[in-house]
Design a protein that fits this description.
536 residues; mainly alpha; Growth Hormone, Chain: A; 20 helices; globular; membrane; transmembrane helix; transmembrane
């Protein structure tokens, strides 16, 4: 990291001048960093708490719809395999072997659920299960690609118009998916919808970074992911019932309603949070505040009285877009950011693979869940979200604060790395355990299927939220560019991890597939040791 001023002697003083390291405590009192300005109109740090939480709620609804449409459908891939094979999806209820679709014979890895290729009919001239499974994996690629456009645009014309455009795109493509008449059209609609949903990956954390202080970012960003997971779980369970009773097209029609509501709430409650903030403000320079104060006095005489502010376009700074692209290239030279990208990619890729394969495990014996219960695969998001917010959200802020106090009041980005240890372990354990359950389900009660899923969900959500906070704290001046690179590349790489998971399970079995994913996650997770040691 860049040393800003070598003139200050002493180890603590030198660390204070390292980019991302700030003096968070003064005489035992927690300071407000970045230091807000005296502007009550434009500075998002001066928003009242109720408005901040209203903004968070609107973004939560947006995120939960995106998670439901992407992750919820992934768990119902078996339904679409039958649909595009010209078969009635209700025949899935007979896959226990008692109906017209017999259970497959044991595969090369022991249990019949390991040989997924035999679990579904292969009809000449119809899409294969691998092609249909792209409904669950390919949108992840477009989630990543979206970030290459959203953040440069947000830095040029502001966060608010880009957020509104993303919300429109995410909602408007749902009727397209509902009315699609082919797999290709359905897949295209989901991919374009993912371009809008992609804002949850980078633009939403950037908005939260704009309006929050350094000591509360785990709480805000963790709440977005956790509450989104909780709502996505409820909607996911309901969606399987909708698909079973009304058909899968009604799932998209019904999701259009909350997606439209999310757009309205974003328009009303999400302000423009782009604000030119000085390096002194980001560093917490004491010269910006009077002695004994935490923030400057609001100057209504200079800036006027606070108004609601529904203006959509407030900026026309196109050079900022090019500057963002340059910073994106520079960020790829940062070893700790490259590690964060790989860690995120492993967690997202394994989560998508888990969601896609989990539905089949539940359908086949010995569990033999009915088609209408496939949405219960998303229960992992609910349990994982609750634990993630408690341990890595609220608990993450508390732990980072404790480490800061022990460090003589100096807050370092590396304090966030401690919050990643438990999620990394959870990702490893969850993968290996889920693989063994999928390979030998007769050894486990179905409740352990959901426990292993919840462990994976906890790791996935926690790594996503903590990694964003860590990247922002490391290089606050490059926050937008870093979020682009991290969010884009983790989704692109995770697509490669989850692509073809059905075929890989057929070749390697559940334990082979998810054992490898757990091993890869563990190997990447060990990178926390050199990242911690080489960064001050």
């Amino acid at each position: 990291m860049e040393v800003i001023s070598p003139s200050v002697s002493g180890k603590s003083a030198q660390r204070h001048h390292v980019t991302g390291t700030v003096d968070l405590y003064l005489n035992g009192q927690q300071r407000l960093i970045p230091i807000p300005s005296s502007d009550p109109l434009a500075d998002p740090l001066n928003l009242p708490q109720w408005r901040k939480w209203a903004c968070v709620a609107a973004l939560c609804l947006f995120g939960s719809i995106g998670l439901t449409v992407q992750a919820g459908i992934a768990g119902m891939i078996p339904v679409f395999i039958f649909e595009y094979s010209g078969l009635d999806p209700k025949m899935l209820n007979q896959m226990s072997g008692s109906g017209p679709v017999p259970a497959p014979p044991p595969g090369p890895h022991g249990h019949k659920s390991a040989d997924m290729a035999k679990a579904f009919p292969v009809i000449p001239g119809k899409p294969t299960s691998a092609q249909v499974s792209m409904l669950g994996s390919l949108p992840s690629l477009f989630l990543g690609l979206a970030n290459f456009f959203t953040i440069p645009l947000a830095n040029a014309i502001g966060r608010r118009p880009v957020m509104l455009l993303s919300a429109v795109l995410a909602a408007a493509t749902l009727p397209w998916a509902a009315g699609s008449t082919s797999l290709e059209s359905h897949l295209a609609a989901r991919c374009i919808q993912a371009l809008g949903t992609g804002a949850i990956e980078s633009l939403v954390p950037l908005i939260l970074q704009d309006m929050s202080f350094i000591h509360e970012r785990n709480k805000y960003i963790g709440f977005i992911w956790a509450s989104g997971g909780v709502m996505a779980c409820g909607l996911g369970i309901a969606s399987s019932r909708i698909v079973a009773d009304l058909g899968w097209r009604w799932f998209y029609w019904i999701m259009t309603i909350p997606a439209g509501l999310a757009f309205i709430l974003i328009f009303v409650f999400v302000p423009e949070t782009k604000f030119p903030r000085s390096q002194k403000s980001l560093d917490g320079d004491l010269s910006l505040v009077s002695q004994g104060q935490l923030r400057p006095e609001i100057d209504h005489g200079l800036h006027g009285r606070k108004r609601w502010g529904w203006t959509v376009f407030q900026y026309r700074e196109w050079p900022q877009a090019w500057h963002t692209l340059i910073e994106m290239g520079q960020s790829l030279l940062l070893p700790n950011i490259l590690w964060i990208i790989l860690l995120n990619s492993a967690s997202i890729g394994t989560n998508i693979a888990n969601q896609m394969a989990g539905g089949v495990v539940l359908l086949l014996p010995p569990y033999s869940f009915p088609q209408s219960s496939l949405g219960f695969v998303t229960i992992s998001l609910f349990v994982g979200s609750i634990f993630s917010f408690a341990i890595c959200g609220i608990g993450g802020d508390w732990l980072a604060g404790r480490l800061t106090k022990r460090n003589n009041g100096l807050r370092e980005p590396e304090h966030q790395l401690i919050n990643l240890v438990l999620p990394i372990i959870a990702t490893i354990v969850g993968n290996v355990w889920f693989g063994d359950i999928g390979e030998h389900p007769e050894k486990y009660h179905w409740i352990w299927f959901f426990v292993s899923n919840a462990i994976l969900g906890f790791g996935f959500i926690s790594i996503n939220s903590v990694a964003s906070v860590y990247a922002i704290e490391c290089y606050p001046n490059m926050a937008g560019s870093l979020l682009v690179v991290v969010s884009a590349l983790r989704n692109i790489i995770s697509f490669g991890i989850s692509f073809g998971v059905y075929g890989f399970i057929d070749l390697q079995g559940f334990i082979g597939t998810f054992g490898i994913l757990g091993g890869v996650s563990g190997a990447i997770g060990l990178g926390i040791i050199p990242v911690w040691s080489m960064c001050p």
